[in-house]
Write a structure and sequence with these properties.
Elements: H1 2-12, H2 15-27, H3 33-46, H4 49-58, H5 67-83, H6 86-107, H7 110-122, H8 126-138, H9 140-143, H10 148-161, H11 164-177, H12 182-196, H13 203-213, E1 218-223, H14 230-247, E2 251-254, H15 260-270, E3 274-279, H16 283-291, H17 298-308, E4 311-314, H18 325-345, E5 349-354, H19 365-375, E6 379-383, E7 405-417, H20 428-444, E8 450-456, E9 459-464, H21 467-478, E10 490-503, E11 510-513, H22 515-521, E12 532-535, H23 536-545, E13 551-559, E14 566-573
Length: about 575
Amino acid sequence: MPLEQVRHAIRSGDLLGAYDAAMAAMADGNDDRELRFLLVLALARMGDTDRAYALFERYDLAVDASEDILSLRARLLKDRAIAATCASRAPLFEAASQAYLEAHSQFGGYFSLINAASLSRLAGSVDQSSQLARRVIADPDVAAPTSYFAAASAAEAWLLLGDAERAIAAATAARALANADLGPRGSTVRQFTLLGDADDVSAELAERLCALLRPPPVLFFAGHIFQPDDAIEAAIAARIDAVMAASGTAIAYGALACGADILCAEAALRRGAELHVVLPFATEDFIAESVVPGGASWLPRFQAALAAAQSVTFASEAAYVGDPEQFQYGSNLAMGMTLLRAAHLHCGAEMLAIWNGAPPRGSGGTGGDVLRWRGLGRVAHVIDPGAIVRPPVAKARPSPVAITATRCQRAILFTDYAGFSRLGEHDLPGFWANVMGHVAAVLATAEAAIDFRNSWGDAVFAVIDDLEIAARVALDIVSGPMVSSRDGGMRVGLHFGPVYRMVDPITGVDGYIGTEVTRAARIEPITPVGQVYVTQPYAAMLALAGNAQFRLEYAGKVSLAKHYGTMALYRLSR
């Protein structure tokens, strides 16, 4: 059932999955009120506060609302307070606290009451916060908790009252009651972290409670391919099991190459963990390049793990063209997706590498992945596989024709002006001078990073060698002038992926072509005016860059222009 699918995704902290499932069910005509509530909740937990609030209002959720729905509205008010400047936060926190109190007055639940207490503290009302916290403790369900939320509410109340011993005991009970539901634990950690920043709340105690309740780190796995060997595999598998047990692995991302990848995937599945497979290119090509070279016995294991995975993502749906960067592109996507999921759960992210410590045999490889991961300041657990027999490095595929082309990974930008076709003849000179002049000025600020640019009419195509600069350029473009208030504005689609660089036989200058250029071109037409949409690979790479000046909000799986299928997209902002 769609509703249960969405509920499960929310409980496990799979907010992207919850959003997609809810949107798909609604597209099929399911207008269940709880489905809409869960959709808004997923957006709220992803940090997309403005869109969540807009949908809350559009769906009229406040009409004949339950305590959960009224609490969601209060939560959105709280999120607006968090995003506000310090000077305006206190009254906004107080308004959110009052909204929770209104929910409590109607339904009497402890959940709305504990939130009112915490937000009252954040608003600076210490006495009121303490009084409300004591009322929470007096609730029979909280005094003898049998559910996660009741025990977590007790821990929160004792934190507000400064009783470390009772707070820790309640948090310990909450952890035991949480089962496999990681989403609620992530939300609690967010709340305790917020309280730890309050002036009169113990930051040390708040962090001790977070350490008890924080979901286990999301795992990215990678490693060497090798030929089957029962004894060696058993030894490696035992060590993988030990690392996952110590880390508490419940969510894992990686590929499914023969050897290390499949062993890690099988270990995750044995634990009952979510397995998210990320393949660098088309399945059949991946099997030919990364599964059967290790021996035919790996194929059924690959197929079994793939079938058991909760999700399968392709970095590119293109074929393998003999470019080793395609493998690196897939690894980068898996790493970035790991970080994005960890951010939603307010937990850590770790790597498990089956690596012999030798330098990479080609571009990237396991050694390169470990170096990159550790360069982010993240933990990488390394298992030396010992005397494995690795297949020979595959030779590059010869090109069917004699051409001069190089492969590289680049940010790909497409933009146009919505409403251009409606402009009158007298508007065109002003459009060219002002709107396109603004775009030219923005591109000029990034001159050194721009490998290619072209325009035709209102459209611009640019290839940029730095994805952070590309993000800044895109946001600057959409902030530019319009011809008039009724004529639309600029919209930008951004993608990141491997492309061919070669001389354009028509113009005689370097140009960029490839499947990823085509994919990028299909994003801009479905992007709302004044916004920047980026692909999941772009979002993942931006997460790897760790640049806090940009924000990503999930837009869902969107149907692309010209019947080019669907793609997971994010809204980019500052």
